[in-house]
Amino acid sequence: MIRISDILERAAEANPGADLDIIDKAYVYSARVHAGQLRLSGEPYLSHPLEVAYILAQMNLDPVSVAAGMLHDVVEDTHATAEEIEAMFGSEVRHIVDGVTKMSKVTVSDSRARQAESIRKMLLAMADDLRVILIKLADRLHNMRTLEYHKPSKRREIATETLDIYAPIAARLGIYWMKNELEDIAFQHTEPEAYENIRQLVARSRLEREAYVQNVMDIIRERIESAGLQGRVLGRYKKYFSIHCKMKDQNLAFEDVYDIIGFRIIVDTVPHCYEVLGIIHALWKPIDIKFKDYIARPKSNMYQSLHTTVIGPGGMRIEIQIRTEEMDEVAKSGIAAHWSYKEGRRASPKVSQQFAWIQNLIENQENIRDPREFMENVRIDLFPDEVYVFTPNGDIRSLTRGATPVDFAYLIHTEVGHHLTGAKVNGRLVPLQTELETGDVVEIITSPKGHPSKDWLGFVKTVKARAKIRQWIKTQEKERSLSLGREMCEKAFRKYRLNFSTALKSPEMEKVVGEFGFKTAEDLIASVGYGKITPLQIVRRFLAKPEDGAVTDDASLIKKLIGTVRKRKPRTGVTVKGVDDILVRFAKCCQPVPGDPIVGYITRGAGVTIHRSDCVNALKLSADRYIEVEWDKEVAEVYPVKIRVNAVDRVGLLVDVVSNISKNGANIISAWTETRDDHTVDGLFTIGVADTEHLNRILNDIRKVKRVQGVRRVK
Ligand code: MN
User: Fold this and answer.
1) CA nearest to 270, candidates 338, 326, 330, 329
2) How confident is the model over 385-402, as pLDDT tens digits?
3) What share of the chain is helix, strand, coil (3-state, %, to 5)?
């Protein structure tokens, strides 16, 4: 069993001059709270935190990490509380221990294995401090080393999880020694037969190759020395699991896996690395495509080295790595190598600097040669703007940080979002604007009657939820406007004895729709509902359209136009000052239209009669029957007005006059014309106009008709 003195010794080596009291204190505390607990192996439980702390010390981590490693299980497995940890060891240690405890709660069931990538991301996202992951990895490593004390089924489960989750995390952080060890132990338990087979094959070939390996190493050493360089040469067998993967992935026999032995040359400086490369290439013929310069272009996890494969003695392919001592250190422990407590500087700012590589990776995307490698590596951004949550079935979904149950519901399905009525997080009902946290289990409650609320737009975070809610509201408003608009149109058309539904199907309506700038009749009707267009405007345009086929005869045209307009109901459009809801009618003598100055006179039993203020008949009426009136501001009505047209007859004259009235959207209510012997024409038309301005426009247009000599409103 590891002793505390071993740990302190190692930590002192890695952190010269540092105060190691915190490690000692953590040891005493951990021993006290774990007292009496045993491991499955029968050893005192304390052996586990000691081993974990030792692994961390070997990785040259700072004293805080080593102390936190010693304490990593106390909150979960003993009566110790997070508050106690903080009081005794400070908030930094508490934060790390909390992180490890939280991570331990994410267990990977069989159904979740296929989501390995999501789980890795989730774990990385949970660890807002990299040391949390390093401790978790050390914890897992020791648990793997003592896996044989579990039942076989449990062993397989843990081993599979290690292969799926923890070994890849170690690889991405560049801690290859740990990745290799985790994989080889796991391999032993997931596929015992394959493991044993490869172990024996390697052992046998080792004997055969021993002399060869020695020979290659001697040649390299000799060449390096004669070039005046200093360096170490190592020959190393590939790990069983990576041989297994290579055989499986590339469908190779064991004999065909040529690079079972790797050679590594470690020199003191970068220029010497290239010098050695030159020596090797002069010695043996390189295989071009196998050469990789990770010194000039480090891997995103900071790995640096030169890789080359050459045809060695006897035509055997051999793989050689060339690097400096420093690079070798990074290759062994990856990011952890940068965590060391060096020159009295605290790790945190330094590490945040180290993490600039993630930023770099994103910014220098175009410099990445292998886009797949790039994707692999950005995914381990340790501080992502994402949270990872579970569905009740155990599926993992990722969401933008700050996302709420509403966002989650829309992520699951649009219909789930639209019918959301409530949400449970970790089994408890929560307000809909609750921000989700990584690891939460989120359950959405829906009801057929549920529907989105405008308020949700105030707190949703995802683009999808926002867009879907907006869309729903818009559709809803459009539906309302559509039914309102349809009702208004039907009413307006009815006034003109027209059936709106029939009108909708006519080609005229199609043109009207286009004239208003809409694509569909639905849009036009909705815009009536929104209040952007009055139904009367539509009626006018609709009637202004000449009917299909040329009209050959003036009389029939006029008849046709008049036919569309019959006697009209009494209408308002005038406000009587101080009186609501009073019956109003318009005097026939002067036919006032909006824009005309008007007066009202009370008629017993008949309400108020509206005259133009200059009407002679009105002037005769007694002053005590007078009442003040005014036009409504928004008048969606037409008013009959009589006009007289004088012209010299010609073919098509009446058609031209009539079409100038129609063109302006006015209806002809009645028409009377007389052609005299001297070829002059006298025409009297009653037309429906909106106001004086509308009337004047029509009069002006008729005036321009060829041979028209005069046109005026009849007083
Ligand atoms: Mn543990």
Assistant:
1) 326
2) 677 788 887 777 888 888
3) 55, 15, 30
CA of 301 to the centre of ligand 1 (A): 26
486's tokens:
């349809």
Burial 611-631 (b: 16+ CB within 10 A, else e): bbeebeebeebeeeeebebeb
DSSP three-state, residue 567: coil
Residues, CB within 5 angstroms of ligand 1 (ion): 73, 139
SS3 617: helix
User: How far lies 345's CA from each of 18, 19, 338, 570, in Å?
Assistant: 10, 13, 12, 93
- Ligand 1 centre to CA of 384 (Å) is 26
How far apart CA 692 and CA 600 sit, in angstroms, is 18
Q: Are 682 and 674 in contact (CB under 8 A)?
A: yes
Q: How far is the CA of 393 from the centre of ligand 1 (A)?
A: 27
Which run of H or of E encompasses 159? helix 152-161
CA of 80 to the centre of ligand 1 (A): 15
3-state secondary structure 469-512: HHHHHHHHHHHHHHHHHHHHHHHHHHHCCCCHHHHHHCHHHHHH
Catalytic residues: 76-77
Angle at alpha carbon of residue 118, lines to 117 and 119, rounded to 5°: 90
Q: Which of the given ranges, 43-52, 345-354, 380-389, 525-534, has the highest pLDDT on average? A: 43-52
Q: Which residues have a Cβ under 8 Å from the Cβ of 48 and sit 6 or more positions away?
A: 39, 73, 142, 143
In this predicted model, what pLDDT tens digit does every residue of 77-96 receive, in sequence order?
A: 888 899 999 999 998 899 88
Beta strands 607-612; 584-586: pairing state: parallel
Q: Count CB neighbours of 279 within 10 A.
A: 18
Neighbouring-strand partners of residue 233: 265
